[in-house]
Amino acid sequence: MYSFYAIIGKKDDATWRRMPIDQKVQEGLTILFDSAAATLRSEETVVVPYAANYKTEPHELMAIDGFGLPNRLQAGLASLDTAPLLTSEDIEDGHLRAIVAIVDPSSPDLVIQVFNGRLAIKRKRWNLFIQGERLTKLESAGLTVDGKVHLLVLGNKLYLSSEWHARQVFELAEFFEEATQETMDNFFNSEHFRVTNPHDVVGFADSWMRKKIQSIMARNVLNNISAKGIQKAGKRYGIDVSLHRVSGKPPRVILPETKKELKTLLELLDDSYLESRMTKDAFKVTSKRKVSISE
Q1: Quick one: 109 and 160 in the same domain?
Q2: Considering its fold, how many domains does the chain have in total?
Q3: Is the pTM value of this prediction over 0.70?
Q4: Which residues on adjacent β-strands are paired with residue 253?
Q5: Residue 48 backbone phi and psi in degrees, to 5
Q6: Which of 102, 112, 171 is nearest to 146 (CA)?
Q7: Among 135, 159, 175, where does a domain finish?
Q8: Which of 212, 164, 129 is nearest to 54 (CA)?
Q9: I need a labelling partner for 264 at 20 to 30 A (CA). Which of 139, 221, 257, 278 fits?
Q10: Rounded percentage of the chain residues whose pLDDT exceeds 70
């Protein structure tokens, strides 16, 4: 049978609370969570590597290898039996982040339901329930438990049905790979590009742009296309790509000097725009999961 706990607080300082439930509720929640976890990871489930902003299809589940709980939550596993009880204030003040089912705290596999604040039962509202033949106001705070499970922690893997749910509980930034300064320099100094103001361009390269550049360089995109090819691809998707031409030398793509335009170019280079082979319709996509193609 599962034991049930709550995660409360901010993501960078989250901690545990014991959920004060009786045996009947514990048995019912165990059946509910066990069934929901089995549905989440059934025989039909296809597990794909985690990719930022990827929207899973039905029967898909993303996985992050090498996942570990935040330090405070990890340390708290050793003393779950003495963790403070979940209080009305935890629920009413919006501190409750997730309900967690655990079988064995010594080597925990976690079944996690991300808590939706709209399911909080707050005393300031008129929550009515039927008692006998009358509706009576519920004077205590409480919560409604959903029938879904959103996250599974199994060993050192985090399985997630959606990035949004995972981000309500955990910080995922460390699982993005950003470009190093050397990679950034190699990208901007590539023979494909002309950079008018390199200091300004590098200066506004934020974390999102660094991740895109890392992806582009890791997949050797620039080795497989010319500046003219980039311009042609951009034209197909309505993206203006200007070339700098010097007699006797290959043309270069003029890198945009605004952040918005540069991000659009990086999306183009990172294959965020693709075309259907059946309808020829163009789409903006988020997944980089490769599939096998038979000619």
Answers
A1: yes
A2: 2
A3: no
A4: 193, 243
A5: -120, 150
A6: 112
A7: 175
A8: 164
A9: 278
A10: 93
